[in-house]
Each structure stands twice: as structure tokens, then as C-alpha cells.
Automatic annotation (TrEMBL):
Taxonomic source organism: Sulfurisoma sediminicola
Pfam family, one: CsoSCA_cat
The organism's taxonomic lineage, starting at the top: Bacteria, Pseudomonadati, Pseudomonadota, Betaproteobacteria, Nitrosomonadales
Carboxysome Shell Carbonic Anhydrase catalytic domain residues: 49-171
Name recorded for this polypeptide: Carboxysome shell carbonic anhydrase
């Protein structure tokens, strides 16, 4: 179903139904066993630093089971590990993984469109070279915090070409592996290619990276088949109709639904303004109806009691802050904004709507 063209209330109902179905599937015995089996076979913990652009969906692009990859999103994939909250969240994540005996692989991503620069990253004003330079700055910060020997934590620079959802893996000596240039016949040589491209990556980590790349090859073939059937054109353009602020949005596995903003930057108003501008442009161009858009704040919690209560306050703050920014800078959108506030039980992936207003 093409949800983009439905009235706003139908889109909101569809969204919360999607979250419910995702949570039910995540909690199912089969899905739990599949995750446990996958992690037993591929123990490396993988985190992805990526843009808020709704087209950047690495689990879908790599055919990876839900709940395996840990996402971190911000405008343009712009991060600074000196930001207090971001640094604490990443350090806590690494410490928790390492304490259970797992290495950590960071996908540090940028994105672009090979068909049209204007379908690239608006956060960097469509300047891919600037986006790549920033990913290497993040890589250096990761090395500063966790070490440059890469024995436990590995920062991997990775491009994402949004026309075909193809990954581009950057090697240690300036080489690149563009998966869009490979075919199914290259599967047999993928392991050797990775060893030559990333000689300083631990062997187990390379073995755990391999399924993502093989999954991406399959996904690229699917995308190309869609393009041949003329089913892909709209998916490579901005069609987002909701702004998500916070964390816990991995149920949004449909492309071009949402602009997702992590709560990391000290200047949180900047990505909110950028996202609101994109929503306004989508309405003006007729890519989505102009009858409304959704602002959804979500904060995850691990435990009931204090942890959940704190998540409620934080989520309410985020939704109020974002609504005020949008109302002040985009008054014409204010009357079309439906605001919902939620918390997410991280263990069960249950999204709990704790209030909203139109």
C-alpha cells in the first residue's frame, strides 16, 4: 500500500499499527530465536551512524534481521563525539558490548545519489566530498576514544548510494569497494576482497561484516528489478511526512516515511528546522498531501519505575521543544502538525503513546 497519499489521520493510524505489528513480531519466539542464533554466529555488535534521511535504512538494505543493528541518526550524519549526551551513549554502548565479550563495529555513513546530486544529502548541501570528509573526522574521534589499533572497536567509513541502496566500503589505504559494481558471481571472492581492503580488521569482525555485504548484493538486485518495472522512481525522492525525534524508530522499515533526528546535538533546533523545511517542500511539490504531518517523539527505557518515568519526561520535553521550534519558524505548518509523544520498552519494542494532540 502506498501510504504517502492517504489522509493524515489514516497515515497516523497506519503508523501506530505498524509499530504494534513490529513489536509483536519482535517478541515472537521465532524472531527471538532467530536473533539469538544470528548473534551466536555473528557476535560482533554493529552500530550505524547515519543521516536522518528516511531513505537510509541499513537493515533493509543489507537484509539483516531486526534488532541486530544499533542506529544513531542526525542531520546529514553529522556527529561530534564531544557532544556530552552522544559521547555518553556511545561509550555506554561499547562498554556494555565489551563486558559481554563482543567487539564493536561502527558504520560511519554518508549518502549520495549517482543519478542526481539534488537527491543527495541536504545536510551537506549536496556536497558529497564534504560529507565524506566529515565521516573521516568521526572516524578519528572514535579512534581517539577507543583506540587506533582497532582490536576491539573498529570505525568503518561507508557510503550509501540511495538510487540503488548500494554500500560503498572504504578501505584503510584509500581503496573502495562499491557493491553496485559487483554481481552474484563475485560472492565467492568477497571474503578475500574484504581481507585486502581492511587488513587491520579482526578476522571475526570481517566474518560478521560479510553477511551484510552479501545481503546488500541481494537487495541491489531487487531494487534494479523494481527500477526495470518503473516502481522505484518515487522511492528515491523525498516523500517524508513525519518527523521523528528521539530513539527507537527501527519499526519504520518503509522508505521515505520519516525524517529521524537523534537527541544528540546541543543545537537540536537546527535539524528540526531542516526536517520541517523538507516536509514543507514535500507538501508544496505534491509528493505528500498538504493536510498534515506527524511529529513523533520517542524515548526508550530499559526498566519500569524510575527509568520509564524519566523517559516520559524526556519524551514530553522533546515533543514540546520541537513543536515550539516548528511553530516559531514555520507558522504555516503549525496548523497542520499532529504531535504524539511516546516511550518505547526497549526489551519488547513496545511503543507506548503517552499523549498527543492535533
Amino acid at each position: 500500500m502506498d501510504i504517502h497519499g492517504k489522509p493524515i489521520q489514516q497515515r497516523i493510524d497506519w503508523l501506530f499499527d505498524l509499530a504494534d505489528r513490529h513489536g509483536a513480531n519482535f517478541r515472537s519466539p521465532e524472531a527471538w530465536l532467530a536473533r539469538e542464533r544470528y548473534l551466536a554466529e555473528h557476535p560482533t555488535a554493529i552500530a550505524v551512524l547515519k543521516c536522518m534521511d528516511g531513505r537510509i535504512n541499513i537493515p533493509i538494505a543489507t537484509n539483516t534481521p531486526t534488532g541486530i543493528l544499533m542506529p544513531f541518526r542526525n542531520l546529514g550524519g553529522m556527529f561530534d563525539l564531544g557532544w556530552p549526551h552522544l559521547g555518553e551513549v556511545l561509550a555506554h554502548h561499547v562498554q556494555r558490548m565489551v563486558s559481554s565479550g563482543r567487539r564493536v563495529l561502527f558504520f560511519i555513513t554518508y549518502h549520495y545519489s549517482k543519478g542526481d546530486p539534488q537527491r543527495g544529502c541536504a545536510g551537506f548541501n549536496y556536497n558529497t566530498d564534504a560529507a565524506i570528509a566529515h565521516t573521516y573526522e568521526i572516524r578519528s574521534q572514535v579512534e581517539h576514544i577507543f583506540g587506533a589499533a582497532h582490536g576491539t572497536v573498529y570505525p568503518l567509513v561507508c557510503g550509501f548510494e540511495t538510487d540503488e541502496d548500494a554500500l560503498i566500503i572504504h578501505g584503510t589505504n584509500g581503496e573502495k569497494l562499491d557493491l553496485a559494481t559487483l554481481t552474484s558471481a563475485d560472492r565467492a571472492t568477497m571474503e578475500l576482497r574484504l581481507a585486502a581492503l581492511l587488513p587491520d580488521m579482526p578476522a571475526q569482525m570481517r566474518a560478521d561484516l560479510l553477511p551484510l555485504l552479501q545481503g546488500n548484493l541481494d537487495h541491489i538486485e531487487t531494487i534494479r528489478a523494481q527500477m526495470r518495472r518503473a516502481e522505484r522512481a518515487l522511492d528515491i525522492e523525498h516523500r517524508e511526512w513525519m518527523i521523528c525525534l528521539g530513539r527507537g524508530f527501527d519499526f519504520l522499515h518503509t522508505p521515505n516515511i520519516a525524517l529521524i533526528i537523534g537527541p544528540y546535538s546541543p543545537n537540536l533546533d537546527e535539524p528540526i528546522r531542516t526536517a520541517a523545511g523538507i516536509i514543507r517542500a514535500n507538501m508544496a511539490a505534491g509528493r505528500v498531501p498538504d493536510d498534515g504531518f506527524l511529529l513523533l517523539a520517542s524515548v526508550p527505557y530499559d526498566e519500569i519505575g524510575v527509568d520509564r518515568a524519566r523517559a516520559e519526561l524526556k519524551s514530553r520535553f522533546l515533543s514540546k521543544f520541537a513543536a515550539e521550534v516548528i511553530s516559531a519558524d514555520f507558522p504555516e505548518l503549525a496548523g497542520k502538525m499532529a504531535v504524539h509523544t511516546a516511550v518505547l520498552d526497549w526489551r519488547s519494542r513496545t511503543l507506548e503513546d503517552i499523549g498527543g494532540h492535533d
